Amino acid sequence: MVINNATVDPYTPERGYYECLSCGDRTTSTDRLTECPDCGGAVQNIAVARE
Hints:
Blueprint: E1 16-20, E2 26-29, E3 43-45
Protein name: Rubrerythrin-like domain-containing protein
Domain DUF7129: 8-51
InterPro entries: DUF7129
């Protein structure tokens, strides 16, 4: 159910959603990130489905 035309899934393919594996910080970027902008740790794209 969508209330007042609210966006249910804000995912857009132009923007990556990343989570740092070291500090847990989450960020979005239009460029592909390879390291966390806060601590320099490795990041993973959380917009990609994982099994």
